[in-house]
Amino acid sequence: MEPIADLAAQLAHLADRTEYLGAASELLLKMFPADSAARIAVDPAAGTAEALVYPEHQRAAVPGEWRELWDDHPILLSCMRDTASGMWRPRRLSDLVTDRELYATRAYKVGLSALGSNRQLSFLTARNGRTSIQGWSLNRWSHDFTDREVELSGYVQPILRLLDAAYDDDGHEAAEKNAAAAYSLTAREQEILRLVGRGLTATAIGHILGISPRTTSKHLENAYAKLGCNNRIDALRTLHLFLEPPP
User: Which of 205, 206, 217, 236 has the highest CB neighbour number within 10 Å of its CB?
Assistant: First the structure.
């Protein structure tokens, strides 16, 4: 689908995670016209929660108490309870509860009402363990998301899931760049090796970068030759990158 390919192309070459999240929010708000978009990261077991609301001027509306509402929000509950086969499906708030049920929750009374939201479309982009989840939520007031928008979000979600992994900040960026420079790796070779280090396949990398898996493999072959190795494990060890499980 052309809009999805365009989204991936625009988000694949940004400088860092902060820039990526800002650009992703802008594109999501264009694809799904909404009052706001929120990047959510919640881990009840660790007692942590973060909400980055876009446009940024709306962040002041997010109450501090919202961190205690994870066990009361219908979408978060659905994500926590879902099985592995269904955890990645997009969720429309109105499919989970009626308005009457929603308005009775603390999640609405304390959190959603402050954002002026009673309609949401959400999807996960990362999940670690049983309770730690990350994702996006699009917010509207009384104008529900259509079936077509829910369907479209199902195409967007895998792309953002891969990009989330690609822009994960593991704290080793400087060491990675220094090692890559020492072996005269091109910018494209470095980019592909970084994505390989996140556990992404050649097909997934090609999808993000807008190139074929064959071209991806050719860049990897060239990088391996420069590094004096013939497989991803040795290449990543040479560059001092840390392997992560596939997203």
Answer: 205
